[in-house]
Fold this protein.
Amino acid sequence: MESLLERDGLIAHNWYIACLSVEVKPGQVIQRTVYEKALAIFRTESGKVSVLPDRCLHRLALLSQGEVRGERLACMYHGWEYSTAGAVERIPSEDPEQQDSKKHCSKVIPCVEQDGAVWVWMGPEAPTTATPPWRFPYASDPAWEHYFMITDFPNEVTNLAENFMDVPHTVYVHKGWFRDEKADRKKIPHTVETHNGRVLVTYLQKEDEFSWGAKLLLNPHGAPMLHTDEYIYPNITRVDYIFGKNGFVINSQGTPVGPLNSRVYTYIAYKIPFFKKLLKPLFGFYTRQVIEQDVEIMHNQGSSLRLDGTLAFRSTPCDELHVQIERLRFYGKTDNPLLQSYTAKKEINFWI
């Protein structure tokens, strides 16, 4: 099986979530893996976050098993201390009057803390943008409640993005939790629009509805539902369900970890008239059940790909959104300018 970097090419040169802000507290260091690269993420006593390759320059011990000392990260093997910029500022075993620690410097990984997540830039050159261009919707709007979920999937991010936006699978994979399989299937007209490195799907079926459990939680008054799904290159999906003045947004960012292994950071925001904080545990329980069903089917598909890594999907016209996602990631792999300039719009029908 080809390596992750061989598979994704220049797709890797982007911002990815390495962890949530709450996962690394002041004075702590944790390890995370992005694109098969082990990272040591630490927060200084003053609260600054820094990310270094998880390997001491001296004898290659794991920095993630070291300790934070004030504004520095110290290796557990010989105590070499690194600044947030990656410079070795202290070598305990050397004569303080003669040591030249400044000549030793680890390559710091560019990172930005934004909307409750620590993002890292995985390209070899300087970031093309000062901050990650994606902002989680309604993160600063007090009318909306929100929370994160972290989920490990034994599959790769392209398949996950397609799964998160795939409506027909909900009848089978999420039966009883999301939708119910019925003999009298409904025709669902929708448009698939590709532009500016995004794929937007707009569903034109106001009478579409969830199973009774989801309807009770999300739309008790039976308002018409506006449903849109969007893929944002390279690995973000946004699913919106709007019910009049209320709404529910599922925003997932897939971080590639290794071949057929990804960690997904799912941001969920919702707006309901009453008891929005009290209902958060109930929403959390519900969304966790749905995501675990996705984990199961992605494990199923991933197991097949581990036996034979050949990607030869058989698509029909109702799989247009999948085709467009794969197209954009193909363009991104080689930095093809069509990634941003390609446009398309199709009207599609499927039955669920």
Q: What stands out?
A: The longest helix spans residues 280-307. The chain has a mean pLDDT of 91. Helices lie at 4-8, 157-164, 170-173, 212-218, 280-307, 320-333, 338-341. Residues 160 and 298 are 7 Å apart (CA to CA).
